[in-house]
Design a protein that fits this description.
42% helix, alpha/beta, seven-stranded mixed sheet, Rossmann fold
């Protein structure tokens, strides 16, 4: 099933399934367990669904695994999912819907959702864990915790690396540009690229940033405006449509990717092919499926696929790192925090929003699963988890994403 994640029927079956999560649990009688409900807010049928569906399945399988293995003693995890259709009008109703169904916390994927929900989370003192990160979610520090790092920090880190390790300045100052739909992450990346270039005019010539409205399908002005760029950051799902149209005009550039395209590699490659992305540079804070050194987190992701997606495992791996990096790795952090909160209040029956918040504020990664990662964590005022990243290059000849830089600290000021 090559295009497994594009099939609406599969997605609908997953929606039926998530309501039953927690019914098959290891480690004791369910009647003796305390049910903890995780609310999930994501896009399952909208414009981003084909690219991000695997992240949803990673969370589904991780929750099922924790239940089957009884990894949180005395607890039955229940997952309830709200489909936003990538429509911001459904975000606040989704927050209310999930809470009405007993959600003890919410895991959010799409940037605009966590941005819109921050005032409500802070007012209600209700914990939200966002897979994406931007400044609005984190300032002032409140009840939204970000399971990644700011997109502008990622792109500026990549720009600094390009200036030091990739571009040959014998050819002059490279021209760079940006294009993405107008959303909170897009605006933040564009501003970061522009500000960094203005602060370092000897390193980059910033041509322009384009932020067309959400849902834009045709990028004629953007293609022509960026046709002479040496590097273009074409961000997220909208960047794929732009790249298709850019290549169709015969233009070529090196694409810069702030931690997005590896997550839905299959969707990207089905649209443009390996030759189109040859040489693309990605900055990411997780591992890939093809890392050579042994790693417990990667082993866990493969184990989940073999246990719950037998016969489809290779399809999920071909789709990209979304299932692994966001679906599993990031949500392991959420479940770590949940376990710490339960331990701090002497049992799940005493769990509260405040206990989850306190555990999140004090969270530092640790244990076997996190070996090989840098020392990351939250703090009293710190609301993003990752502080370091690696650089990868997409190589068409090898049909693989190859690491070209090991962990480096993220650039957070410029």
């Amino acid at each position: 099933m090559r295009r497994l994640l594009n099939k609406v029927t599969v997605i609908l079956l997953a929606l039926v399934f998530v309501g039953t999560l927690g019914l098959s649990c290891g480690g004791g009688d369910d009647e003796e367990k305390v049910t903890i409900t995780i609310g999930e807010m994501t896009d399952l049928t909208g414009a981003a669904s084909s690219a991000v569906a695997s992240i949803h399945y990673g969370l589904v399988d991780l929750v099922r695994y924790y239940n089957d293995e009884g990894l949180i003693p005395g607890v039955k995890l229940r997952l309830v999912t709200w489909n936003t259709h990538l429509d911001p009008a459904r975000t606040i109703p989704g927050y209310d819907w999930l809470r009405q169904r007993g959600a003890d916390l919410i895991v959010s994927l799409i940037t605009q959702d966590a941005v819109m929900l921050k005032p409500f989370a802070d007012r209600d003192k209700f914990p939200i864990f966002s897979q994406t990160t931007n400044q609005v979610m984190m300032e002032p520090p409140g009840w939204v915790f970000c399971l990644s790092s700011r997109a502008d920090h990622m792109i500026v880190t990549l720009l600094k690396w390009v200036s030091e390790k990739h571009w040959d300045y014998d050819h002059g100052t490279p021209k760079i540009g940006f294009v993405a739909w107008d959303d909170p992450s897009g605006r933040e990346i564009e501003q970061g690229m522009k500000t960094y270039s203005q602060a370092h005019p000897d390193r980059f010539d910033y041509v322009r940033g384009f932020l067309p409205p959400m849902g834009t399908a045709f990028f004629s002005a953007e293609v022509e405006g960026l046709k002479n760029c040496d590097y273009v950051c074409a961000y997220s799902v909208s960047g794929i449509s732009f790249l298709q149209q850019y290549l169709a005009k015969g233009y070529r550039t090196t694409v810069l990717d702030p931690a997005v395209f590896p997550s839905f590699q299959g969707y990207l490659l089905d649209r443009v092919g390996w030759q189109a992305v040859d040489g693309m540079l990605s900055v990411i804070s997780s591992l890939t499926w093809t890392e050579t050194e042994p790693h417990a987190m990667q082993d866990l992701a493969r184990q989940l696929l073999q246990r719950y997606r037998r016969g489809q495992a290779e399809d999920f791996i071909r789709e990209g790192t979304g299932y692994f990096s966001a679906g599993v790795v990031s949500n392991v952090a959420v479940l770590d925090i949940l376990q710490n909160a339960i331990g701090a209040v002497d049992g799940a029956e005493n769990l509260s929003s405040q206990a989850i918040y306190d555990a999140a504020v004090g969270y530092k990664i640790g244990g076997t699963l996190w070996q090989g990662y840098p020392e990351w964590g939250f703090g009293q005022t710190k609301r993003y988890l990752y502080d370091d990243a690696r650089i990868y290059e997409w190589k068409a000849a090898e049909e693989d994403i190859v690491r070209v830089q090991d962990w480096i600290p993220l650039v957070t000021g410029w």
